[in-house]
Design brief:
It contains eleven helices and eight strands. The chain is of the alpha+beta class. It has one domain (4-131, 185-261). The strands form three sheets. A four-stranded antiparallel β-sheet has the order 2-1-8-5. The chain has a two-stranded antiparallel sheet with strand order 3-4. A two-stranded antiparallel sheet has the order 6-7. A hairpin with a 2-residue loop joins strand 3 (87-89) and strand 4 (92-94). The longest helix is centred in the N-terminal third of the chain and has 19 residues, at 17-35. The protein starts with a strand and ends in a 6-residue tail after the last helix.
């Protein structure tokens, strides 16, 4: 996966793409664990929510080959871009990526919540305000201590294949960046998307005529509060429909879904 960039008005630091993949894997693993597909009752509930157009609707519940629970987890991890919409209730789509993200958020420590937020929002330019930079640095430090984030990893030495060399992931540099100042925001992006600052959608005028400092000011003013990483509301933040794996497998799952989806869904 692509690297995660953290940009301040003065400089830019990046975290390796292998760590973005690690964040994705953590979110998927948490979701799979909460689905608890060894429980046949959970399988029944989830099967009732499979979209009729998705291949999982015809996947055999028993027999040779890939088991239904394994195939379901793979579909959750791949997302609708490859396989089409997986989860549906009375004709209403339930975004499975948001289910996975919310599953990590609902049971997460602060670092796991940050893993989910960065996995979903780094390319959308999630950001932290100047006064909250030290708080975010502390969350990353807690994540490194607990193992949610990795200091580095070993790779094969290009000159001596039999030898392993240590590569830092980049979190330590991000912490230094966050702690060096509290007067300006830090904004995320990734290496396969648009960098920051980028021209806001509604901007009128000549973007190219603005110097870097002015571009930064204009672009940061367009950042939505939903993309802000801050301690206020951190534990209650959810994506979209707010449903998690715990909701989809609960005994009252239909009531929870109807409440989450709101108008247009009847019993």
């Amino acid at each position: 996966m692509s690297a995660i960039y953290f940009t301040s008005p003065d400089r830019e630091i990046w975290v390796r793409g292998s760590e973005r993949a690690n964040l994705s894997g953590l979110v998927n693993d948490v979701t799979e664990g909460l689905l608890h597909l060894r429980d046949s009752t959970h399988v029944d509930r989830l099967a009732s929510l499979v979209s009729p157009s998705h291949y999982m609707a015809k996947h055999p519940r028993t027999g040779p080959g890939m088991t239904w629970p394994m195939a379901y987890c793979l579909s959750m991890a791949h997302g609708s871009e490859l396989d089409g919409n997986l989860i549906e209730y009375r004709g209403r789509r339930i975004d499975e990526f948001m289910v996975s993200l919310n599953s990590a958020l609902v049971i997460g420590s602060d670092p796991l919540r940050l893993a989910a937020r960065l996995h979903a929002q780094c390319e959308l330019h999630a950001w932290v305000s100047g006064p909250d930079r030290a708080w975010l640095a502390g969350v990353i430090e807690d994540g490194l201590e607990s193992g949610i984030f990795r200091h580095g990893l070993f790779r094969e030495d290009s000159e001596f294949p039999s030898r392993q060399v240590w590569d830092a992931v980049g979190w330590d540099r991000v912490i230094d960046l966050l702690r060096e100042d509290d007067s300006s925001p830090v904004v995320t992006s990734n290496s396969s998307g648009d960098g920051f600052p980028e021209k806001p959608t509604g901007f009128k005028g000549s973007w190219s005529s603005l110097d870097y400092s002015r571009r930064w000011t204009v672009a940061i003013e367009e950042r939505g509060l939903g993309l802000r990483l801050n301690p206020d509301g951190w534990k209650t933040y959810r994506f979209g429909h707010r449903l998690s794996a715990l909701d989809l497998t609960a005994p009252d799952f239909e009531d929870r879904i109807r409440t989450a989806l709101g108008s247009g869904v009847t019993a």
